[in-house]
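Hey, I'm writing a tutorial for new members on how sequence and structure tokens pair up, and I'd like a real worked example in the thread rather than a made-up one. If someone can provide the structure for the chain below, I'll link this post from the tutorial.
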Amino acid sequence: MPLLVMKFGGTSVATLDRIARASKRVAREVANGYDVIVVVSAMSGKTNELVGWVEETSPLYDAREYDAVVASGEIVTAGLMALRLQEMDIPARSWQGWQVPVKTTSAHSAARIEDIGTDAINQKFGEGFKVAVVAGFQGISPEGRVTTLGRGGSDTTAVAFAAAFGAERCDIYTDVDGVYTTDPRIEDKARKLDKIAFEEMLELASLGAKVLQTRSVELAMRYKVKLRVLSSFEEYDPNAGTLVCDEEEIVEQNAVSGVAYSRDEAKMTLISVADRPGIASAIFTPLSEAGVNVDMIVQNISEEGRTDMTFSCPTNQVKRAEDALAKAKEAGAINFRELVADTDVAKVSVVGIGMRSHAGIAAKMFSVLARDSINIKVITTSEIKISVLIDRKYMELAVQSLHDAFELDKV
């Protein structure tokens, strides 16, 4: 039988009524002739509640026990959906990560999937079961302990199952009806895309778009898994949502497909650093070891053997970055006059695979921002992306102006 993977996020299974609604969607695909693997998240708000219980019980908690507690949210949802499907006379069974098994690394709360066993579920399909309801976000370590994959890990679970079982498609059901040219809450002319290339989606996800988790898009691109993002709250439509696929499947490629933003950015500048071989390593190695997620990097022109080094990171990692660099300075690894942190900036980016064949995208972007008197603090580019750091107060204006300038509201 052809196989389909369907993933339901927390808002889609937040109540028993919503689980029943999701189960009807599964039943429709079974009626269409599919065997279905359903991957579920915990009911909306449940993971935060479980994390809160762990932190209240043990502020310096054992990560293995953290995973044991937090993984239970998805287990409850999987069992409830399997029961609902059984009440609808659909042969279904719930599966926890260890039962499949989903083999992962030992990095508790941030594990990575290494292998997914297919024999046990395929055997059940062979016995006449039509649906396997899998608890997302979890697996089992080489030591036999429950592991979790980090926030958004159920998306990754779904794509990994689609790859392992050779599914025809992986449908991600969420509270939005697809991928938009930008955030509709900021730009009311934002348009839903029918298709988007893996590379574009990966850039948008990494730049702050919350529709799909970055690791899930990476997996889909690597294993050529067709992804469809659609709403669990809309009426059934076989052509609904946005298909994430190879760029070869997109006939007409616009220069720019979307405008993304990240509100919680900080710009940090090391003033008067010794300009010598190895200085970049001396700066960014301690930041990496401290878990600081560095994004944009700019080094100024050297003057009398000294230079300034600027980088961006999330605002909630500024203190961690300051501590790491202060310790490196104290140890004599680096020497700088001052560390200046600007926590009132935002990152705005334009993304599109069409940039490869269209000249003048950067010039147009910069002229639009100049027209609106928006000063650019840092610029980075890639083959299909241009990102700038600007004052946060201009972020929404920049998104709206760029969306208009590249006519993203038009098909």
